[in-house]
From TrEMBL:
UniProt GO molecular function: hydrolase activity
Keywords on record: Hydrolase, Signal
Protein name as annotated: Alpha/beta hydrolase-fold protein
InterPro entries per the UniProt record, alphabetical: AB_hydrolase_fold, Esterase-like, Mycobacterial_A85_antigen, TPR-like_helical_dom_sf
Pfam families: Esterase
Signal peptide as annotated in the record: 1-19
PANTHER family for this protein: ENTEROCHELIN ESTERASE-RELATED, FERRI-BACILLIBACTIN ESTERASE BESA
Amino acid sequence: MRKATLIVLVCLFCIPLFAQISYDEIKSSKLNAVRKLKIKLPKDYDPSSEVKYPLIIVFDGDYLFEPIAGQVDFQTYFDDMPSSIVVGVVQGSERRYDGYCDEVTGLPKESGLRFHNFVAEELLPYLDNRYNTSKFRVAVGHDLMGNFINSYLFKEDPLFNAYVCISPDLSGTVRDYLGKRLEFFKDDIFYYMATSDKDLPYIRQAVLNADSQISQVNNQNLTYYFDDFENDNHYTLVNSAIARSFDKIFELYKPLREKELEEKVLPYEGTLDEYLVDRYDRIENLFGIKKPITEQEFEKVVKVAEQRNDLESLEKIGKLAKKLNPESLLGTYYLAQYSEKIGKTKKAKKLYESALTLNDVSHIDRDFIFSKIDELTIADTDEQEEEEDNEEN
């Protein structure tokens, strides 16, 4: 049933997809030719806005562009990755020349080097000047181009932050020293590689050897994922690899889920507002985009604070929510809860009352707030009567 639902959803996404794709041409002095591009901008793209978007460069854009553009639509719909600019480089009959590498080094030479420089010195600057791109760039390649994109890793300053190498035809030094190269990065690098049990034998063996190298790399800045699919061949593994790679690369961007709450938030050493701030700072620093903390995520972290009996976190989460969105009742509501829990009923009542003057949030029932005000009013009356009785006695 779930598989059928996913198929229907994918079909629904594909219907408007082609209408969103535009075509462009870029004149290259490096190639002495004009190259065609397929471009898909986010649905809400506004060139006058200051919002920035990750840039995904799809080599083998002739056949890889559409499945990747569809996957991006699918994952952004569920907020599992940020809206992104997807650019496919149409290579056609030039593909062999574009991916031409030295047999010994495995690095581009002659026509391959010209194409390498075209991407680095012409294509990327052209896209950065034309669109609102963030600093986060993803390179995707299959087979020959899956090997080719590794050449950017061997530059002093790699052009891409994430590499999706689908059944790459690894060769030469790249094949033998890929793991060694990945040991030395001081900035965050994502590397994904995939093969399958029915992949081309010589490609599969080289990929498995590379995986054994990379798996031993001890570099906290490297995030490495590897998939060895079953019953897929050299071509059918592409769709699975695209979905898996994007799911992993953008894992930090996803909304807070149960696994993270249990494994990272609950045992966090410090107040939980710090966890939220740090998490979203990392998203901004890594992807170059500012993602707001949602009401639902605040609520999830407050529940963890309650689970920890952590009143300090409750207070600080309230202050953070109020600072980030002062027009919302959310922060004031949490501060009212905190005051109530520490016995400051008069302050709690005033905070609940002021919360009612602010904007609603989806998961807080205003009737409940009214009931809390009534409850605290009765408590204040009973407390006052008790004090008067004590004075008389």
